[in-house]
Design goal:
Elements (H helix, E strand, L loop, with lengths): L11 E8 L2 E8 L6 E5 L11 H9 L3 E5 L19 H15 L4 E6 L1 H12 L4 E7 L8 H10 L13 H12 L6 H15 L1 H4 L5 H13 L9 H8 L16 E6 L8 H8 L4 E5 L8 H21 L1
Parallel strand pairs: 3-4, 3-5, 5-6, 6-7, 7-8
Antiparallel strand pairs: 1-2, 2-4
Length: 317
C-alpha cells in the first residue's frame, strides 16, 4: 500500500452551510486558494467515511478538499420524509448548492457509490462547473441500478441489457436484514453496521478486515448523527423518483474522467467498466483486493491515482 499523508494542519473545523434549503455539515482541508475538490459520499453515508489519510493526501498535493454530510445523515438537516419528501435529484441539487455556497467553480468532483451517480449527473448537466470527474464503486448514470437490486432481491429475472447483479453474499445479507427486526439499540445498530462493512469488503477483503477499527468508526458515526433513523430516507428518495436519473447523459460528459472499481466489488461488480465505456476518454482503474468501500488498505493506491488524475486535469485547463 502506498504511503499517504496525515491530515494537514490547514483543516477547518466542520461547520453548517445552507444549500438548497437544507443545512449541510461541511468540513474543509487545504489552502482555500487551491483548486477545489468536492468529495460526495454514497447513499446513507456520512462525509467522515472519506478516510482522513485519503483526504490529507489530496490536500497535501495542493488542493482545497471539501467533504460533507448529505441531508438526513450525520450532522446535516434531518427531517420526517412524509413531511419533507425528495428524490435523488434533490440530493444532486444539494451538491450543486454547496458548490455555489462555497464558491467551488469549477470543481474536481469525486463520488463514491451513489455519490458517484451524483457526480456523473452534475458532470453531464453542468460541464462548465466540473474540472474533472472521479467515480469510485459506482454505477452508470441512468442505468437504473436500484431496480436491478430490487429484482435481484426478489429473485426476478433481469431484462436484457440490465446491469450485473450484486454478489450472492451481499444479496443474502440484505435478505437476512429485511427478514429480521431493525436494530433497537445503539449496540445493535453498531453491530449491524460492522457486519455490513465486512460484507462490503467482498471475498478478497475478508482477510484484511479490522473489526475493532471498524467498530470504533461505526460508534463514532452513530453518535454524531442528529437522528439515526433518517438515513433510511435515502432509500425512500430512490423509491420516490425511480426514473429521476437521465438516460443517455454520459455522452455529454466532457471532464477528464477516472473510474475506480475494486476487484472484490460485491455491490456493483463490473459497473465501473460500463461507466468508462460510456464516457469519452475515461480511464478505468481496477484496484486489487478492494471491495465496495474505500478502506485503509485501498486508500493509498486510490489516493495516488487520484492525485495524478487531478494534476493532469489541472494542467490541461
Amino acid at each position: 500500500m502506498s504511503a499517504i499523508s496525515k491530515m494537514p494542519e490547514t483543516a477547518v473545523a466542520g461547520r453548517m452551510v445552507e444549500a438548497n434549503g437544507v443545512e449541510l455539515w461541511t468540513e474543509e482541508f487545504g489552502d482555500p486558494a487551491h483548486p477545489p475538490v468536492l468529495l460526495i459520499a454514497g447513499s446513507m453515508a456520512q462525509g467522515l467515511l472519506w478516510p482522513d489519510e485519503f483526504v490529507g493526501r489530496i490536500a497535501a498535493a495542493g488542493h482545497r478538499v471539501v467533504r460533507y454530510d448529505h441531508r438526513d445523515v450525520g450532522r446535516s438537516t434531518a427531517r420526517d420524509f412524509e413531511e419533507h419528501p425528495y428524490t435523488w435529484a434533490d440530493l444532486k441539487d444539494d451538491a450543486l448548492g454547496l458548490m455555489d455556497a462555497l464558491g467551488l467553480a469549477p470543481a474536481h468532483l469525486v463520488g463514491h457509490s451513489a455519490g458517484g451517480l451524483i457526480a456523473q449527473w452534475i458532470a453531464a448537466d453542468h460541464p462548465g462547473r466540473v474540472a474533472s470527474l472521479t467515480v469510485i464503486g459506482s454505477s452508470p448514470l441512468g442505468a437504473r441500478e436500484g431496480q436491478v437490486l430490487v429484482r435481484a432481491l426478489m429473485g426476478e429475472p433481469q431484462p436484457e441489457g440490465a446491469l450485473p447483479e450484486p454478489e450472492p453474499e451481499f444479496l443474502g445479507f440484505l435478505r437476512n436484514a429485511a427478514a429480521g427486526p431493525p436494530p433497537a439499540t445503539r449496540a445493535e445498530a453498531v453491530d449491524f453496521q460492522v457486519e455490513m462493512a465486512r460484507v462490503l469488503g467482498g471475498r478478497e477483503g475478508a482477510a484484511d478486515f479490522d473489526e475493532d477499527a471498524q467498530r470504533r468508526l461505526e460508534e463514532r458515526l452513530h453518535d454524531r448523527m442528529r437522528a439515526p433513523r433518517t438515513a433510511a430516507n435515502h432509500r425512500l428518495a430512490g423509491m420516490a423518483g425511480p426514473e429521476a436519473e437521465p438516460v443517455g447523459a454520459l455522452a455529454r460528459v466532457t471532464a477528464p474522467t477516472l473510474v475506480v472499481e475494486g476487484t472484490s466489488e460485491p455491490v456493483k461488480p463490473g459497473h465501473g467498466r460500463l461507466i468508462a465505456q460510456e464516457i469519452a476518454g475515461a480511464r478505468l482503474l481496477m484496484v486489487p483486493g478492494m471491495g465496495h468501500n474505500l478502506t485503509p488498505n485501498a486508500a493509498g493506491e486510490v489516493a495516488e491515482a487520484l492525485v495524478a488524475h487531478l494534476a493532469a486535469a489541472q494542467g490541461a485547463m
